[in-house]
Design goal:
about 15% strand; globular; 8 helices; alpha/beta; 7-stranded mixed sheet; about 240 residues; single chain
């Protein structure tokens, strides 16, 4: 999309229903995206306009969350984000996360499972929940998705809502890991592509054993990897032209 095409979305996105600070963060960050990012978004038709839905993304950079929220808003959904609880303890981020009604996860503790309860409740109430199933940045040297955590599978099987796999690429160039300030120039190309919901229906009535959760998680991560493969193959092909 060109900057003018992105700017045209400024008042279309449904950000007003999720608290002052979350809305303000979007208003502050959106002009940065418009001016400095060559954004390409595809697959929004796979996101249902109403009802509970999980958006499951790969994780490359701290800028993933911005791109993921933009994708959700452009799909006409205001997301609730599963994110590390330490953000709630930071002066600015804490206000944004509380304002947006997002869901804290105490990673690496027994409390991590507690975050799934409000997430499942939100999904059953018809909300959009955004999650990075890997739980952290991928450690794969080629930036491919790692094995996912079982939380996304448990949420999906307990709520029985669609899981839409979404791949992001280019965010690692916009804000490389270990850096604080984004690299805004030259403009970075960021792609966000969603696929059809992952079919987990055959697992709904089965006991949530480790094997069942592993199977559901693998299907989600495989679908995300497939979407990412498509993006990277297209870009590799375009460089040869």
């Amino acid at each position: 999309m060109t900057p003018l095409e992105l700017a045209a979305w400024t008042w279309k996105m449904p950000r007003r229903g999720r608290g002052f600070w979350f809305s303000l963060a979007i208003d502050v960050l959106w002009p940065v995206v418009v001016v400095f990012v060559r954004l390409r978004v595809r697959g929004r038709q796979h996101v249902p306009g109403t009802g509970g839905v999980i958006l499951a993304f790969n994780h490359l950079s701290n800028s993933d969350t911005v791109a993921a929220v933009v994708f959700a808003l452009m799909s006409n959904r205001v997301p609730r984000i599963l994110a590390k609880a330490s953000l709630w303890r930071m002066p600015v981020f804490g206000r944004v996360m509380r304002s947006g009604g997002h869901i804290p996860v105490e990673r690496g503790t027994v409390k991590a499972a507690d975050a799934l309860k409000p997430a499942v409740e939100a999904l059953r109430a018809g909300e959009c929940v955004m999650v990075f199933p890997e739980g952290t940045f991928t450690d794969d040297p080629g930036n491919w998705p790692m094995k996912g955590k079982s939380g996304v599978a448990r949420m999906a099987l307990e709520s029985r809502v669609p899981v839409v796999p979404v791949a992001e690429w280019g965010t690692q160039d916009l804000l490389p890991r270990g850096t604080v300030l984004p690299r805004l120039w030259p403009r970075k190309r960021v792609e966000v592509v969603a696929g059809a919901p992952v079919d987990l229906s055959d697992l709904y009535d089965r006991e949530l054993t480790a094997a069942v959760l592993d199977e559901a998680t693998s299907r989600v991560m495989d679908a995300i990897t497939t979407m990412l493969t498509g993006i990277r193959s297209e870009q590799a092909g375009s460089r040869k032209v």
